[in-house]
User: What shape does this take?
Amino acid sequence: MGTNVGFTATVSAITDAFGDPTRRRIYLLVRDRGDEHGLTTTVVADEVGVHPNVARHHLDKLAAGGYLEVQTAKMAGGGAGRPSKRYSAVAGAVTEFPVRSDDLVLSLLGRALAKLSPGDAEEMAEEIGAEYGRAMAVGLNGDAIEHGSRSMRSAIQAVADALTAHGFAAHADSRNDQLRIINDHCPFGDVAMDHPVICAVDRGMVRGMLSELTDPEFGEIITESSLPAGDTFCSTAV
Assistant: This one.
């Protein structure tokens, strides 16, 4: 029994680490192309064809799981600046990968997005988010609250609470007379890191909910910052 539990836990850990196709490609690149000095984030990003922030995200996840080792190289000549990290594979850490149906879905998503122009992909993602947001707002309004009757500040707080319930860890913020929603966690995870256009879904959800909770003519909604762009959190401003 204990052996089965241990085996299941091992498979689960490997699945979590390598279920994402991009992360698996990065691991194989480091394992097969790296030497005793390892590979830098820049080299990995160039070889795989992703933004350095995306490459760093996957490399650090693999390192945290014990699949990669990290060496910090000092700047040549003792110059100032962030030391360069080099990643190398841990010998014998993994010999094979479990097959996941999620791989097929992620691959399909990547190919579908690649066939659209950036503008079309973003428009589609935001509209899907808006449709979902409008549906979420129906539950937020309730019978006692008339459609569109909330103040903007109250509506923003309600949207933040709803997003938190859906895994975004969101909170409302007001700074310089600008209302915004801060998301400290993205439930889309690696999919958003590999396809930043997914961030438009967040913006659409906010727009969809606000259109039901307050005056539909509330103005422009913009994505101020996002994790895939290298920011420390995601924020949507109204």
About this structure: The beta strands are 39-40, 68-73, 84-89, 170-175, 178-183, 222-225, 234-237. The longest helix spans residues 118-141.
